[in-house]
Amino acid sequence: MLTTTAEPATDLGYLLHKHPDRAQAFPVAAGTAHVFYPRADQEECTAALLLDVDPVALVKGGATTGFTLGQYVNDRPYVAGSLLAVALGSVFSSAMKGRCAARPELAARLIPLSVRIPTLPCRDGRELVERLFTPLGWRVVADPVPLDPQFPGWGDSRYLDTTLTGEMRLADALSHLYVLLPVLDGSKHYWVGQDEVDKLLRAGAGWLAAHPERTLISRRYLAHQRPYVRTALERLADADDTDVAELDDALAEPVVTAVPERPEPLAVQRRHSVLGVLKELGARRVLDLGCGNGALLRELIADRELTEIVGIDVSASAIEAAARALQLDRMAERQRERITLRQSALTYTDQTLAGYDAAVLMEVIEHVDESRLPALEHAVFAAARPAAVVVTTPNVEHNVRFDSLEAGRMRHSDHRFEWTRAQFREWSEAVAARHGYTVGFRPVGPDDPDVGPPTQLAVFEREQAPEGGR
């Protein structure tokens, strides 16, 4: 909860771009973020951010823990950690950037602020909270939360009921929380890559370079991955003209000398494989056929080289979910003009889909009855006839490598079939021959020498008609 007593206190609504008279909900990767105001009057205004985590969706999105049950039974829905930081950055993005279109002068003002975090995870106790927040101008009160108030003998948990008070710009306060909540948590829910360095330095601009604990912050925020930590510290050193060797000597410790071998989730590998193929093809106008809730669309819209993206799905609810995930209603106009979402069946001819550079059917064909595949084939390869078609589908032979999958069961309850590599190759080569395409095959995921990869991918490229031909 974020509270101010700057009069009129209700100006907090302008700063946060959230009206005090309304409760609002925003879809985020982990579930739904709710913003509401327990109190809003001239003397005091409090804005609350409540993150309702969907544990199952979190696991499907690639979050992992040390053991299978731990993916579903953990503290993630209840603590102010990396999930809340991501929601904070998404819901209050304009406020964090110091923008206030309605009252621009407010964003630059120092105002009295109080931040209450009832369940702040921190194994190192209140001392670390003070070391991180006090240099930034906060006064810290952090009390351990008992494991069970009814049984005081059990001792305290690793969570702190924390209140921060200070006088500063709201944008600065939000950036402090965005960076330091994951640092204290020490358990990021997503894979840390090079882009995290940019996010850290962007959010920490103006304060991180001068922070006495900048090395510790960088190490924890970047999950102790030495190459990324080194890059961050070098760039911070450049920001304040300090030699990187003069920074905290923690870099001399054997932190992590290589990126840990943590496998990228198969869903992520699949999307990256498709994106890689589209780049190789030089595609600019792309169809995502069977787009579902927009997982691939989010990656496509981020690629500035794509000038037109069309998402098609037979399910109206899936189209609505994709629109929410993409935040179409909040998307910049120039960005919004690049993407279209439509409800349509892939087994019916739609002439408006003709002429595109590429069409993607990512994990789609196995959801279609085999008797309806000829109709889908005609609609895509004969009527729409894009320059290239990318198709992915499960490799049923690899199912024996999934410990959680019972013998004979398909990977999804809606799958109508799952093909072997030979079956997929036979279907693909026949489709290519019938419609004037060439086809090549690629593995997605680890290519097991005995049973092949978990996902198989085919790239169809339309043959050029010879000069003087039809």
CATH class identity of the largest domain: Alpha Beta
Number of helices: 16
What is the H/E string? EHEEEHHHHEHEEHHHHHEHEHHEEHEHEE
Structural class: alpha/beta
Counting structural domains, the number is 3
**Which topology of the largest domain does CATH recognise?**
Rossmann fold
**Beginning-to-end CA distance, first to last residue:** 69 Å
CATH architecture identity of the largest domain: 3-Layer(aba) Sandwich
Radius of gyration: 26 Å
> Could you tell me the mean pLDDT?
82
- The level of helicity is 25-40%
How many strands, which pairing sense, and closed or not: the largest β-sheet? Answer: 7 strands, antiparallel
Which sequence of strands runs across the widest sheet? 2-3-4-1-5-7-6
Beta strand count: 14
How large a portion of the residues is in β-strands, by DSSP E? Answer: 15-25%
The geometry reads as: elongated
CATH superfamily of the largest domain: Vaccinia Virus protein VP39
Unreliable residue runs: 62-70, 239-262, 466-470
Domain Hen1 N-terminal: 2-237
EC number: 2.1.1.386
Region (Disordered): 441-470
Enzyme class: transferase
